[in-house]
Every structure is written in structure tokens, then in C-alpha cells.
Amino acid sequence: MKNLARDGLHYWVFATVSPVDGGYLSVRLKPVTDLHPVVEAEYAALRARETAEALAPEASAQLLLARLAELGFPDYDAFMAHALAQELAPRPGLTGREPGRALAALHEALALSLRLDRDVAALSRHLDALRHTPVNMRLMALRLEGSNGPISLMAQNYTTVLTEARDWIDAAAHPARGDLAAIGQAIRTGTFDLGVALVQRAAIARFRAEIDAATDPDLRRRDAEECARLDAAAERMEATCRDSLALIRGRTRRLAGVVRDIRRQCTGLNATRLMCKAEAARTSASATFAAIIDTLDEAQARIDSSCEAILDTSQALRHKIEVGAGDDQGGAPATRPAEPVAAG
What we know:
By secondary structure, this protein is mainly alpha-helical. Helix content is 75%, strand content 6%. It has one domain (15-32, 91-325). It has helices spanning 35-53, 57-70, 76-88, 92-95, 97-129, 133-145, 150-172, 179-213, 217-281, 286-325; strands spanning 2-4, 10-12, 14-20, 23-29. Strands 1-2 form a two-stranded antiparallel ribbon. A two-stranded antiparallel sheet has the order 3-4. Helix 5 packs antiparallel against helix 8 and helix 6 (133-145) packs antiparallel against helix 7 (150-172). The longest helix has 65 residues, at 217-281. The protein is elongated.
């Protein structure tokens, strides 16, 4: 946030804003990471366009989202989660060792979720590239052996397996209901909720220090009640983070299971491909069939490689989530800061 000072100058703060009973809590930090000059430059560029082109807020928002996409963030939530995790990373006194470790693991999970998106997109492209190959096989076989010959049946087998794999991937990559969207959103939500909870805990620690120093009993009581409300808000965000972690683990396991099924089905086509090659050798068009089979060989190798990449990324992502949940060593990480630190 760029704030206007009383003397007409400005200053920047990194602020988290979250709802609490009866209002909201804004905790502000001094920006200390390399992201701050990037934000300043982007703000200045966008503000200049708003002024020069008299942009409506909606148009400005679209420009901002497009620019974030160029910087590698699929949406604004992803940027917020990244910015908060990065800003808290160099403040171990604020987060405490174990909560800081959990937040760092979630931050790394953000990058892994984007890699998982790319891996699934690559598998989708490889499946699409094979779409017409079994059709070509069947057309050639019709000319050589009729409608129910062995090569026609093998081509149909290819079509069935590839169609089923395509349907599985489409379901996983659905932008609203798919596992990929759910995993990415849960990682962003979990990262942001944990980061905000850590900042709030630090603010509450500062408030409690002020309460301990106060001498007015009414002030002490009112401040203690306020701290209790803030505690409840932080606890809700921590609970939401735990829910996000559980969802991520469940969805990554399910996605990995789907990919294993695709890989098993495609691997099972090896025998079909060899039989097709043997049948093609008996026909006058064996050279043409050989070229098709070579295409299938190459495509299947790419599919297998993409499946392996998805499984590896899913496993790495689950490990990061287990670190975030504290399950890699048994027991959840502490959520309160190691020491009271001023939030400003």
C-alpha cells in the first residue's frame, strides 16, 4: 500500500487485512524484500496508464491481471500468497522457527502446483497428438482387410484407451471442478491464511505486552477482550489452513491415481502395437503401417515421460504439504511466534 503522509509525502507498507468480529484487522510491516521495487514500478506504470487513458477501474484491473500473468502468477490470489510468504521469510522472529518452516514449505508448494499444471498440459498435448493416428490405421486396414480385421480391431483398442485417458485429463484439468484447480486454490488459500495468522499472532503478542504494562483496570479488561477476539480470528485462519492442507493431500493422491491408470493403460498398448506390427508385415502396405507404428512408439514414450513427471511433481508436492502440516516429523508445528515482535 502506498500511503499519503501528513506532510504531503508518501510511504509504503506491506499490509494484511482480514475480517474480525465487528470490523477488520490490518497489520502493517515495512517491505523488506526484492518484490517491493517490482511492485513500486508496476504501480507507477499502471497509474500512468490510468491517468493518460482515463481507464475505468474494471479496465485497470484487467491490465493488472494480465501483467501478473506475464510475471508468472495465474491470478491475484497466487500473487498475494507469494508476496506474503516472501515478505515473512526474512522475519524468523515474527513467525517462529516451526511456523516459518511450514510457511516456507507452502511457498515452495506454490511453485510445484504451477509445475504440475504444466506437466498435465504436456500430457494433454501428447494425447491430442495421437488423436488421428488410430483413425488412419483403421482407414488403411479397411482397404486391406475389411471392417473386422485384426488391425482394425487394434486401432479401435487404441481409440478406446486414448479417449478414456483424454476424458480423465479433461476432468482433472476442468477450471472449476478439476483436481488441478482445487489443488492450486487450496495451496494459495492455505499459504495466505497461515501467513496472515502468523502476522496476527505477532500483533496480538505486542498488544498483550501493552496490556501487561497498563495500569487502568478497565483498559486492561477491554484490551484483553479485544485480544481474545483477535485470537479467535487467528485460530479460524489456522483451521482454514489445516483444511486446505487436507484437501491438497486428498486431491494430489487422486490425481496421481488417475495418472497411474493412464500410464498402465498406455503401457498395456505395447502388446497391441507389437501385434499390429506383425499383422502389418503380412500386408502389401507394411512400410506405411511401419511409419504409423513408429509414430505410436514416439508418442507413447512422450506420454510415459509426462506421466512420470506428473507423478514426481505430485509426490514432491505432497511432501511439501506434509512439511507444512508438520506430518513429516510427526506433530503439527507451533503457530504462535517465538517472541513478541512489533508488527510495524
